[in-house]
Amino acid sequence: GNIFSIIILSSKEMKNPFNTLLVALAIFDCIFISFMVFDYAFIRVYRWPFTLDSELYTYLFPKFIFPLNNISLCCSIYLIIYIAFERYSAVCNPFSYRESTRPENANNRVFKYVFCVIFFSCVVNIPRFFETVIQYDTFEEILDDNTTVII
Questions:
Q1: Residue 56 burial class via C-beta count within 10 angstroms: exposed 0-12, middle 13-18, buried 19 and up
Q2: How many other C-beta atoms can be found within 10 angstroms of the C-beta atom of residue 72?
């Protein structure tokens, strides 16, 4: 559904700041869905391209998959807030909104919104990159036949 929305809303006759924000929202939602499908469907259910027990997943999940998933989720949430603000401005102050959405101002306005959304989403989620530490533990187990297994 998001891909069809992107195609339709980005056509020439549908070009306006509100639709451009909806296209950006659909893109952020597609990124979020891609991370979720990759993590929960491919890795956790089908164990492809690697399993939960693999060393690669141990490195990728806390340092890449988890933080970027949260960044894309925050981008979607913050962009919804900006879209609500855009609609509020259009309804409550229609004259100033119409003046601010002229073609020369509209692209700059949308760019500022999307840039702020990405910036604040990254800033809020910086701790996600550092909140996990990979720790290796070894332990010895002595079996009944006096053999020692180190794992």
A1: exposed
A2: 23
